[in-house]
Design brief:
The protein is an alpha+beta fold. It has helices spanning 29-44, 49-54, 129-135, and strands at 7-13, 57-58, 61-68, 77-86, 91-99, 105-113, 116-117. It has a 5-stranded antiparallel beta sheet with strand order 1-4-5-6-3, with helices on one face. The chain has a two-stranded antiparallel ribbon with strand order 2-7. A hairpin with a 4-residue loop joins strand 4 and strand 5 (91-99).
Length: 140
């Protein structure tokens, strides 16, 4: 497994409106939880959505993977951790959701994003120089 280059975490308390009829978090909400952590990660790098747009690149999510190990429940305090593990040709962010009280891992997953030139609409096969700059790594 690739060692993370940059990471960030956020803490949330599960609200009632995120539950399904079985009184556990509805599976579709996990993408939103991942988004909270990914946003914190990119804000830390000063490359959040407005900065991406200003740099001329969109970064759509093209893949979402979630492995549900344990259900999340009402009022549970969770920590969502996001880490960048690939960046050369695509951006892969790995996630873990843990119970704050026990430290138990409840969920893991990843997203894959690609750079799209906003002027031409073309997908970039190598991540643009701005990403390498924001990550503090040399551009190939």
């Amino acid at each position: 497994m690739t060692k993370p280059l940059h990471s960030a975490s956020v803490t949330l308390v599960i609200p009632f409106h995120d539950l399904d009829p079985m009184h556990v978090v509805w599976h579709g909400n996990y993408a939103r939880y991942f988004e909270h952590a990914r946003t914190a990660l990119f804000q830390q790098l000063d490359y959040d959505v407005p900065a991406m747009r200003d740099s001329g690149f969109a970064w759509p999510v093209i893949e979402l993977n979630v492995r549900y190990a344990r259900p999340l429940v009402y009022q549970q305090k969770i920590e969502i951790h996001a880490a960048i593990v690939e960046w050369e040709n695509r951006l892969k962010v790995r996630y873990e959701i843990r119970d704050v009280a026990s430290g138990e891992r409840l969920t893991r997953g990843h997203t894959v994003q690609v750079a799209v030139n906003m002027t031409s609409g073309e997908m970039c096969f190598v991540s643009p120089a701005i990403l390498f700059e924001k990550l503090g790594v040399p551009h190939p």
